[in-house]
C-alpha cells in the first residue's frame, strides 16, 4: 500500500529543488523530515511539507507512524514557464523566464528484515 501527496505550481525552479530531493530519496520519512528541517534554505520547506503531507495521509488512512514509512518515489517535474521581457542594453528587450515546478512523493511502509 502506497500513500502519495502532490504539490503543483511551486514558484521555484525545478533545477533548484532537485538537489534536495536527491538527498532524501529512498530514506526513512522521519530522517528525511529531520534533515530537511535542519537545512537553513527556504527551498527545502515545500519539500518537507510535501513529505509530511504524505505521512499524514498514511496516518489518517491506516494509522501508520512517520517512523514506519519510507520514501519510495519523489520527483520534481517542470511546470509552466512564464516568459516576460525586461529592458536590455541599447534599447533592446531581454526575455526572462519564470519557471514553476510540480512535486510528487510516494511513501510506503518499511518492510523489516528478520535476522
Structural class determined from secondary elements? alpha+beta
CATH class division: Alpha Beta
Report, as a whole number of angstroms, the end-to-end distance. Answer: 24 Å
* Overall mean confidence score, pLDDT: 93
The biggest beta sheet is recorded as: 3 strands, antiparallel
Discrete helix count: 3
Spans of at least 5 consecutive residues with low confidence: none
**CATH superfamily assignment?**
Ribosomal protein L22/L17
CATH topology: Ribosomal Protein L22, Chain A
> What global shape is seen?
elongated
Share in helix:
25-40%
> What gyration radius follows from the Cα positions, in whole Å?
18 Å
- The number of strands is 3
Assess the beta-strand content as a share of residues. Answer: 35-45%
Order of helices and strands: EHHHEE
Strand sequence of the main sheet, in spatial order? 1-3-2
CATH architecture assignment: Alpha-Beta Complex
Tell me the domain tally: 1
Describe this structure in words.
There is one protein chain. The protein contains three helices and three strands. The protein has 115 residues and is an alpha+beta fold. The chain has one domain (3-109): Ribosomal protein L22/L17 (Ribosomal Protein L22, Chain A, Alpha-Beta Complex), CATH 3.90.470. The protein has a three-stranded antiparallel beta sheet, covered by helices on one side. Strand 2 (69-87) and strand 3 (93-109) form a beta hairpin. Helix 2 (29-38) packs antiparallel against helix 3 (44-62). The longest helix is centred in the middle third of the chain and has 19 residues, at 44-62. It is elongated. It starts with a strand and ends in a 6-residue tail after the last strand. The model has no long low-confidence stretch (mean pLDDT 93).
Amino acid at each position: 500500500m502506497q500513500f502519495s501527496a502532490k504539490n503543483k505550481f511551486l514558484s521555484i525552479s525545478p533545477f533548484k529543488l532537485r538537489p534536495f530531493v536527491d538527498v532524501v530519496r529512498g530514506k526513512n520519512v522521519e530522517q528525511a523530515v529531520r534533515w530537511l528541517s535542519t537545512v537553513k534554505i527556504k527551498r527545502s520547506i515545500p519539500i518537507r511539507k510535501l513529505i509530511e503531507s504524505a505521512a499524514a495521509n498514511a496516518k489518517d488512512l491506516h494509522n501508520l507512524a512517520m517512523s514506519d514509512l519510507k520514501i519510495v518515489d519523489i520527483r520534481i517535474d517542470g511546470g509552466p514557464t512564464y516568459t516576460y521581457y525586461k529592458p536590455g542594453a541599447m534599447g533592446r528587450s531581454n526575455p526572462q523566464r519564470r519557471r514553476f515546478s510540480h512535486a510528487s512523493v510516494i511513501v510506503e511502509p518499511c518492510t523489516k528484515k528478520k535476522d
